[in-house]
Amino acid sequence: MKLRLLLVVIPLAALVAGCGGGGSAKLRSSDVAVVADRHVTKASFDQLMEQQRKSLASQGQKFPKPGTTEYTNLRTQVVSLLVQNAELEVEAAKLGVRVTDKDVQTQLDQIKKQYFGGSDKRYRQSLVQQGYTDAAVREQIRVQLLSQRLFDKVTADVKASDEDVHAYYVAHKSDYPPTREVQEILVGKGKRALAQSIRTQIAHGADFAKLAKRYSKDPGSKSIGGKFTAKKGQDVPEFDAAVFSKAKTGTLLQPVNTKEYGWFVIKLVGDVKPTSEAQVASTIRAQLEQDDRNKTMTDWVAGVTKSYCKGGKVSYQAGYEPVPDPCAALETATNATTTTG
């Protein structure tokens, strides 16, 4: 497992570091920034920069030199991430969202089990190889758990109604094509005579499933006797046209030749059935609710961003200000919206 945790995308990745003059805490010489009453230390900044240095080295890349655009960009990313984490903690505390040391340990135990076979020794070796500390990993786990719980808290009331599901189904009905149950044997290219022979055997009473297991080159259906659920418009054109023709259920079609795969022997074992709303309602509901949760969170984050910018809840140590200033960009966007509106 690669333990590169520096610039991972957390669920609140859209949360932009606030700007302005001074929060409730005052900058110390050991700070990079303060967020409300939280101090973002130079020690944490230096640690992340060192981890990034080692990460780049492991990829054969050079760490950017101070004063270059690349260095400024990296510094901005690191400071912004640290400030985002601090903002996250402040907002989570307001909502009563917390992560305990036990929660972190449980998650770390799962990581060790999944990636290191449960071996603490292998985990520690990976930390050394990649320039991380156990404390840094635990902190990142804590931040990720906290951000996910905050997401769950903010979006807890999001639900998609039956009316929403129905409206989506009607508007996107073409995404849910009709289906038909068939049995098929992929005989292959240049195998017309064999395909015709197989069809003749089936027409005279031979077992389709046994012949499918013997002759079919389709690994997906061969082992189950050639059973296949065709979806209109999702298979090769020649196969699709034959299956969704007006032929009646029970028909053993003449061998079908396809440009891409060659010859098929096909039996229609079911009627053409539309994909009903009931069949896809749960999938639609899950999709709508996820979309609504994302939008709810984005809107909430936008409000938090504005409050940190306008409320002067963040201040930066000289030389650590993010470039470009995210609050200046936010103000420009707000003014543009106001003007066009």
Evaluate the radius of gyration.
30 Å
Number of helices: 12
Tally of separate domains: 2
> Topology as H/E string?
EEHHHHHHEHHHEHEEHEH
Main sheet overview? 4 strands, antiparallel
Can you tell me the residue ranges where pLDDT is under 50 for at least 5 consecutive residues? 1-23
Number of strands: 7
CATH top level of the largest domain is Mainly Alpha
- The level of helicity is 40-55%
> What percent of residues are in strands?
5-15%
CATH superfamily of the largest domain: Porin chaperone SurA, peptide-binding domain
Strand arrangement, major sheet: 4-3-6-5
| CATH structural fold name of the largest domain | Triger factor/SurA peptide-binding fold
Under the CATH scheme, which architecture of the largest domain would be assigned? Orthogonal Bundle
State the distance separating the first and last CA atoms.
50 Å
Estimate the mean pLDDT confidence.
Answer: 87
Could you explain how this protein is built, in words?
It contains twelve helices and seven strands. Strands 4-3-6-5 form a four-stranded antiparallel β-sheet, sandwiched between helices. The protein has a three-stranded antiparallel β-sheet with strand order 2-1-7. The protein has helices spanning 42-58, 69-94, 101-116, 120-130, 134-154, 162-171, 192-203, 208-215, 219-222, 237-243, 277-310, 326-340; strands at residues 31-35, 38-41, 179-188, 227-231, 256-258, 262-268, 314-316. Mean pLDDT is 87; it is low at 1-23. Helices cover 53% and strands 11% of the residues. With 341 residues, the chain is an alpha+beta fold. The protein has two domains: 31-158 and 285-340, Porin chaperone SurA, peptide-binding domain (Triger factor/SurA peptide-binding fold, Orthogonal Bundle), CATH 1.10.4030; 177-268, Chitinase A, domain 3, CATH 3.10.50. Strand 1 and strand 2 (38-41) form a beta hairpin. It is elongated, with a radius of gyration of 30 Å.
